[in-house]
Structures are given as structure tokens and as C-alpha cells.
Amino acid sequence: MLEPPLRVGICKAGVNNLEDEPSHPPSMRLVHLLLMLVVLAPVTGCLGGGGGGSETTGTYTVESTMASIELETKSADYQDEATVEWSLDSSTIVEDIEAAGGHVVGVLLSLTYGEDETSGGPLCTGGEDNAPDTITGTASKGEWTLSGSGENPGSHEVNLTWHNASLLSGVIEGLTKSEIEDQLAFGEEALGAYNLAVTVDAEAFNSALCSHNDDGEEVATEVSLLVLDFTILDEDGEALTGMAVGDGSLPVFLFAGWIFPVVFLVGYVSAKQRDRFHLDLDFSEPETEVVEGESTSDGETLVESYRARVITLSALYVAQGVPWGFITVTMVTFLAAEGADAGDLAYLLTLGTLPWSFKFLWGPIIDRFQVPAFGRRRPWIILAQTGMVALLVTMLMVPDLTDNISLLGALFFVYNVFTALQDVSTDALAVDVLQSHEFERVNSYMFTAKSLGGIIGGAGLGTIIGVVGIRGAFLIQIPILVIIMMVPLFMRERPGEKRFPWDEIDVVEKVDDDEEGAKEVRDFSVILGNIRTAFSVRSAQFGIIVSFVISLAFILIPILPLLFLQELGWTQEQFNATKGGIILVVTMLGAMAGGELGRRFGGKSVLMFAALSASLTTLTWGMLNSMWGEGWFMMLVWIIHTFLWAIVSICAYSLMMRVTWAEVGGTQFTGYMAMMNLSAIIGYQLAPIFAAQYDYQTIFYIAAVLETFVILAALFIDPEETDRTLNTEV
Fold first, then answer.
1. CA-to-CA distance for 566 and 365, rounded, in angstroms?
2. Is the CATH number of domain 300-332+341-352+368-500+508-519 1.10.3720.10?
3. What's this model's pTM, rounded to 2 decimal places?
4. How confident is the model at residue 135 (pLDDT cuts 50, 70, 90)?
5. Cα separation, 498 vs 507, whole angstroms
6. Residue 9 CB: number of other CB atoms within 10 A?
């Protein structure tokens, strides 16, 4: 409940500014009232639902079946007083474990042995009693260890279990559902390696007339895993479905108490206060500006050829999309299928996204340090691409990805440092070489290219992962990025630049002129001064808030794989093909629609209506949980929400461009994009917090509320304020 005070501040800032203006004061009092209702609505929700999310103790019973799955059978000779240790891994029978219920709760070590003493002297009759040998078996898993001994001939078992078997019979009182689950289900803690040991203490019969020999014992060992399938029943005998998230819940009307005032606010402002809030709607046919030479392809460099600009920028965005799709779709789905929880997925997504939240730091650096002889941006792009390939090779060397999530996350972090550098360098290149009338069209190409890369990394690699494995998915990305790297390697930004150091081109005069003319521009003090000026505009400041809140609803990204795979029974291939294929195609369509609608009716207006529609869709998604088992319904609502949020994203990008000052365009816009990524990280980190407490329905309700924040932040942005204020001053 930290967000409402922030939103109060946002509203106050907007209201104070509006109060200074003389027009429409009665109407503004109604707007103030609506904003107060919006702010106070979730407060009542917090007060009313304080105890609703906590689990309560009750009366329960457990319905269960125990399965024994053979892991290994072997027969070996063990020397006297020798201990033989070995280890087995559950990964070899993971499908059998899932089929049996999925909860490993013990290891069963069955030892069988005969009698193998041999006569040692001529006076032995063969009727003597053999001295018993002691055979000891030990099974251990983490902190759980059990040993058991027996004497030959015969057999014995070492039954190491770590679940509370008393819960499987009789009535359970005084515990919550989660507490029962904690004592019966152990997740990844119960999987992995199991350590085993057998020790033989051989004894031989000896007397004055006869002696026997016994140097050891032959022991047959069967190792099995004990797998529990259980269902918790309430006092009425109704099954309580065990989920990967909590079972706390909050009633939907608490969230509707926030969302529907927002609906009323947007409707009122759109109908009565369009001019005041810069919600200009233009239903006339847009004028088409024909620019001579727009599609020219004359020349070999980027500044000379439109075709070269489109191909180069699109290819570089494909290179960004492939790892993005792989991490957010294929890798996350793989880990979810392997039993990872919301915390693991959020950790990986956070470390992968973190460098993008600070990518604005690259802006001043790449503006300051340039090598004009080889292009202003090209050396940075080549460096970034090389680092991406090197990190993929490094990740291939990680021995066990599922057991080394921490190391994998660290490598993803470094990998995305280079990816973020490539993104900033590419955006700066676009600012440098694109003509003003090309921005919207080429940006749509670039976004589509990134989505195409996401399809390759998501649906493509995610679909074939069953054939090539997760390492094969890593390996396939390397030649893709190497091929794409050929584009910046052989391109030139401007005439007179070198592709390679050994090229014989006279560039001395050009380089000197460039350095002389750009010396002042590339000075850090000038760059930082221009950045301060750019963010002195109120709308630019609200742009920061929009960027900060737009991705908070990403709490659903780590949650959806858990819902689809662990609860609804979708396979990895089905989920990857959907999220990494269909959903990305819908994203591309939504982006194109958002660009056209924003151009036609105003990006701010379209953003607000699309965000509101997306929020209502998410709310409905949560309310209709009885339909979640229907594949067509889940696909339909997911597609609708994706389409709407793609419109929101494109219109937000457009809005951020409009409040960006061209003098520091690359750095300022990169700052907005970085703030959006920080917003995503916060959303990822909120996911395990909410998942530990609330059920899926409530998490959807929370996401629906978070999606409305962008509406309130964008409401007070004047898209033309930066251009009107700073460009006039210049």
C-alpha cells in the first residue's frame, strides 16, 4: 500500500497547475472530486480486506496415494569394513515422478544378501553355524539422513522419508492449508541428487577344529523414490486445489471500487475537458504528406540510402528481440516446467531486465566517446554484438542450468548489459540517420523486427526445445547473432568513413572537421546541462511518472507460466508456441494499430482508452476463473489483452517522443525507456510477494488496478509543451 501517497502527489501537482489557469473552474472541481475518489478507493480496499488474504486454520483431511518409482538396481561385492558411496539423480525419471503426483517425499533403499562364508580347513564338517555379517545401508538427501543394518542371510530396508506421515490419516486441526502443504510437498528441495552408501562388516566362524573365510559380502541394492500424490479436503470433503501461489483472496468489489471511478473520470474528461487535458480527437481524414525522395536508395551509406537505413535498423532490432523472446518465453517456461517457483522466475527476469533500467547511463558515454573514422555509433554496436555472442558461449558452459539459477541470472545480467548497449547505440544511430518524416514509419519497422526476433527466440526456440534441449536453444542463437553482426560490420554511416582499419580511404579532413564541429556538443558539461533543461518541462517530468508506472502490471509475466503449466496442465511446447508465437504476432498487430490510431485520433487519447480497456479485460479475466480450463477462452482473453496493451505501449512511446527535446533526444528518450524497464523490474519483484499471499484471481485484480496508473499519470501531459517551450526558446 505504498502507491496511493504517490498518486496523491501526482494529482496534486496536476491540480495545482490547473488552478492557476482561469478557464473552467467549476468543471475542475468535479475533476478534483473524481481524482480523490480514485485515490481513496483502494484505501478502503486495504482497510476492508486486511485480514482477507491471510490463511486461517480449519479442519482438513488428506486424500493420498504413495508410489514407489525404481531409480536403480545393482548387485556388487563389498569388501569387509569398506564403505562404498555413490549418488543418483532424480532427473532421469522426472516424467515418472510427475505422473505419480510430483511430490518426492522419501528414498527407499532395499538391500538383499545371502551367505558366502567358505570353509577354511579339512576338519570342517559343513554343519557349523556361520557367523552373521552386518550390512549397513545409508540414504541421505540434504539434511535428511537414515541408516539401517541387517544380518545375513536376509534383507532389510532403509526407508528415508521427510514428510509428516501423520497428516495422511485422520482429521487435521490447528493448521492452515499452506502449513499442511509445507509438510507434504517439498518442491525442488526434494529433487536432484541422492547420496547412498553401503558398508559390510564381515564375520567368519572360527573354532579349534574349523575356521571359515569371509572377506566381504555380495549385496543386491534397489533404490526407489517415494512419490506422494495428495489432495487436501475441507471439513465438507471438498477438494482444495493446491496451487503454485497462495490461497488468500480479496473480494472483487474492492478493486472495482478503484477501476470504475477511473472509467467515469476518463469518460468525463474525454466528453467535457478534452481541450484542457489535450485530448484532441480528429475524426477527419488525415492529410498525407508526400516528401520527395522519401524512398530513395541512392548511395551506399546510411545517410544516403533509405533502404540501407531500414534494413540495418531492422536487423539490429531482430538481434535484440531474439534474446528477449528466449529469456521471457523459452527460458522462463523451461524453468517453470522444471518446478521453479515465482521467486526463481522473478529473479531471472529481474537480472535480465536490470541493465535496461540503467541503460540511460550509456547515452552520455556513447555521445561523448566516438571514433568518427569508423562511424559515430557503429563501433559501439559492433562491441555490443561481440559481447552478446561471447556471453552466449559462456552460458553454454554452465553445467546444470536448473541447479545454477543464481549463476545463470548473473550471466543474463552481463549479457543484457551488452544488449542494452546495443539498443542505446541503435537508437542513437536511428536519431542520427533518419529523416524527420521517417520516424513513425521506420519505428514501426523496428518494433516489428524486434517482435520477429522475439518469435524466433520464443516460439521458434521454445517449440524445438524438446528436440534440441535447452543447451541447443542457446547454441542456435550464436550463428543468428553472428549473421546479424555482419550488417554493422560491413555498413558505413556516412561517406568518407572506413569499414575496417586497413581500408584505404582519405578521411583525415572529414574526421578533423567532425571532431572540431562536435567538440562542444560532446562535452559532458554541455550534455548534462541540456538534459537538465529537457527535464525542466512539466510534461517531461510527468513522462518519467508514466514510464515508471506503465509496466507495474508485469506481475503477471512470472505468474502466467505457473498458471498455464502447473495448474492448467499446458505443455511447454503449447505455452511457448502461444506466448512466443501467437501472442507476439498479436503484439505486432496491436503495435501497428496503435501507431495508426494514435496518428489519427491522438496518441494520448488512444493510450488512455486502450489502458482502460486492458484493465477491464484483466479484471474480467480474473472474475471468470471458472472458464480458465477452457483453452479457447484463455487464448481469446490473452489475445485481447495483448492487443490492447500493445496499443498502450506504442502510444506511450509516441508520447514520450513528443515530450523529448531533440537536443538530447537519444539520452532523454533512453531515460524514459530505462524507467519503463525499471517499472518492469518492480512488477517482477512484486510477483512473488503477491504470489505468496494471494490466489490467482486476486493477483489478476491487482494487475488490473496497476494498469490504470498509466492513465492517471498521462492525464496531465501536454504533448506539445516541450516543443512549444524549448524549441521556441532555441
1. 45
2. no
3. 0.56
4. very high
5. 8
6. 11
